[in-house]
């Protein structure tokens, strides 16, 4: 790979050389590098271009167990409309299940490289379980992010046990069962927050597809030069995120970056692009990013409801129940396939793909 002191710098060839190791960012750290390679360098304005948040600004926390249904719906409504990101506690997922899935993700990423390479692929559609680093490695016009990942489609067609690595197999099956249950409840609460029947969003197949994306962010020797994940919004209806205690997640709120500090036992919920589209901007998909960190590894498990593998012919547009003369549709009708193909081709370049579908 080209070094920092080389005269020539070929971004494509350097990305290709990095990719062909099949060892990801962790391979660089294991090689005890002291400088971040240039393909990971981000323009400094992408790190400092937004003013930092005030220290006491925090995303809403909603207790799903101690209030009345009406009170919970009202809190979800306020959080979804004003923040688009919130976290839930007393959500029904046992603490030992949360710990075991984080441990399982860590075990896989710290497995012998030759074992991990068996799962390495850039085919993120036709395989149920894939390990890679940066899905947009070749398509993104921005820098490479400081993280490794494995993804797994859990629903509607779950993988066989043999398709999953032993290191995380049981943890993934157990955690996903709880996530599907929680997702069902959240879509009911969000439907009611929109003033609709509780089954409305589920009837539109928002709960049909579950994709688990498990990130591993190795410690970074120069965290001021790169990002764990660039600014982006999610191509989902809803995302449930579990993070460990390292920190680094930020959301863009009122033109400021706000830290989403770790909260023991909490799960983070954020609105995705598809929900923004069908609610006609009633709920908005917020942009977020993850900073690189000298500490690590940072572990996160993102569960996306509805993604690109199981396409159907359903056409999605702003829900007629929410439209009026004063609130006409803001987006044209699209299929998930149309949206996600463009999203993946564009990569995480810091712009919203939804802008391409506005009327």
From TrEMBL:
- Report TM segments: none
Q: Which cofactor does it need?
A: Fe cation
- The yes or no answer to whether the keyword Ribosomal protein is present is no
Q: What are the UniProt keywords, alphabetically? A: Iron, Metal-binding, Oxidoreductase
> Where does the Fe2OG dioxygenase domain lie?
208-307
Q: Which PROSITE patterns match?
A: FE2OG_OXY
Name a GO molecular-function annotation. Answer: dioxygenase activity
PANTHER family in the record: 1-AMINOCYCLOPROPANE-1-CARBOXYLATE OXIDASE HOMOLOG 11-RELATED (PTHR10209:SF714), OXIDOREDUCTASE, 2OG-FE II OXYGENASE FAMILY PROTEIN (PTHR10209)
Q: Which family does it belong to?
A: Belongs to the iron/ascorbate-dependent oxidoreductase family.
Protein name as catalogued? Fe2OG dioxygenase domain-containing protein
Please spell out the taxonomic lineage of the organism that makes this protein: Eukaryota, Viridiplantae, Streptophyta, Embryophyta, Tracheophyta
């Amino acid at each position: 790979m080209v070094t920092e002191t080389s005269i020539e710098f070929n971004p494509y060839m350097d990305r290709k050389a990095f990719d062909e190791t099949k060892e990801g960012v962790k391979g660089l750290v294991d090689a005890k590098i002291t400088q971040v390679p240039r393909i990971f360098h981000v323009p400094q304005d992408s790190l400092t271009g937004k003013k930092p948040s005030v220290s006491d600004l925090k995303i809403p926390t909603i207790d799903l167990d101690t209030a009345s249904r009406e009170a919970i719906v009202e809190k979800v409504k306020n959080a979804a409309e004003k923040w688009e990101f919130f976290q839930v506690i007393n959500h029904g997922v046992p603490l030992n299940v949360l710990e075991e899935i984080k441990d399982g993700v860590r075990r896989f990423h710290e497995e012998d490289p030759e074992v991990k390479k068996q799962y390495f692929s850039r085919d993120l559609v036709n395989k149920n379980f894939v390990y890679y680093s940066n899905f947009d490695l070749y398509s993104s016009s921005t820098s490479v992010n400081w993280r490794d990942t494995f993804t797994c489609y859990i629903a509607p067609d779950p993988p066989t046990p043999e398709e999953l690595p032993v290191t995380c197999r049981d943890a993934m099956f157990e955690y996903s069962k709880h996530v599907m249950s929680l997702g069902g409840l959240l879509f009911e609460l969000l439907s009611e927050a929109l003033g609709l029947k509780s089954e409305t969003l589920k009837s539109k197949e928002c709960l049909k597809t579950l994709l688990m994306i498990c990130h591993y962010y190795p410690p970074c020797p120069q965290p001021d030069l790169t990002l764990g994940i660039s600014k982006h919004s999610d191509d989902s209806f809803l995302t449930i995120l579990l993070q460990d205690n390292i920190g680094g997640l930020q959301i863009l709120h009122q033109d400021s970056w706000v830290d989403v500090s770790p909260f023991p036992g909490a799960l983070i919920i954020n609105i995705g692009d598809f929900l923004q589209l069908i609610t006609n901007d009633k709920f908005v998909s917020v942009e977020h990013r993850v900073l690189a960190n000298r500490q690590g590894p940072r572990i996160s498990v993102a569960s996306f409801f509805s993604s690109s593998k199981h396409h159907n012919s359903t056409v999605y547009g702003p829900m007629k129940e929410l439209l009026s003369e004063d609130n006409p549709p803001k987006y044209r009708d699209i299929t998930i396939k149309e949206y996600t193909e463009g999203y993946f081709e564009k990569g995480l370049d810091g712009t919203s793909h939804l802008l391409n579908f506005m009327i």
